[in-house]
Amino acid sequence: MILREQQETIKNIIKEFFDKMTIEVEIKEEKAEEDTFRVNLETEMPQLLIGENGQTLSEIQHVLKLILRKKLGPGFYLDLDVSNYKKKKRVYLEELAKTVADEVALNKEEKELPAMPASERRIIHLALSQRTDIVTESRGQEPDRHIVIKPALANQPVTSPEE
């Protein structure tokens, strides 16, 4: 559990981090859930902090996590978002998964999704995990690892998310 004083420390360190980068940010949302502290930032230049496919956001989150663990010790996870980018991305991926799965179930032909990071593949796997008419699997090697959605065959076990 993340204590109230730890939450204040985390917020202060995040603000100081961006102040030193001379980027104005405002903490719009914060939420402590068990061992995860979720923070959503707003800024006039969100794309600068998000980067291509969220890569910069991921790297900023990693650096902040290292700084925070040095100050507070292990035992918590930081989930940093900018302008609800991650939330919007999750919704998009869930809708993509449903649309492609419906098409696969209808046409009985497998479909490959583009290569994506493990965290995004996991969203797809989980979004489709309850479906019995299709099966998902990851194929390939990083950075070209991708998901294939296939029609379920009779007597074929449904795969569970491995990521």
Describe the protein's architecture and organization.
- The chain has 163 residues and is of the alpha+beta class.
- It folds into two domains: 80 residues, GMP Synthetase, Chain A, domain 3 (2-Layer Sandwich); 64 residues, Ribosomal Protein S8, Chain: A, domain 1.
- The chain has five helices and six strands, in the order αββααβαβαββ.
- The chain has a three-stranded mixed sheet with strand order 1-2-3, sandwiched between helices. Strands 4-6-5 form a three-stranded antiparallel sheet.
- The longest helix is centred in the middle third of the chain and has 23 residues.
- 20% of the residues are buried.
- The mean pLDDT is 91.
Provide keyphrases for this structure.
GMP Synthetase, Chain A, domain 3, elongated, alpha+beta, three-stranded antiparallel beta sheet, 2 domains, 163 residues, Ribosomal Protein S8, Chain: A, domain 1, 45% helix
Number of domains: 2
Find the CATH topology of the largest domain: GMP Synthetase, Chain A, domain 3
Q: Can you say what the CATH homologous superfamily of the largest domain is?
A: K homology (KH) domain
Q: Which blocks of ≥5 consecutive residues have pLDDT under 50?
A: none
Distance between the termini: 25 Å
Number of helices, where a helix is a run of at least 4 consecutive DSSP H or I residues? 5
Q: Which strand order do you get reading across the main beta sheet?
A: 1-2-3
Helix percent band: 40-55%
Query: Would you list the SSEs in sequence order as H and E?
Result: HEEHHEHEHEE
Shape: elongated
How many E strands?
6
Percent of residues in β-strands: 15-25%
Corresponding CATH architecture of the largest domain: 2-Layer Sandwich
Structural class: alpha+beta
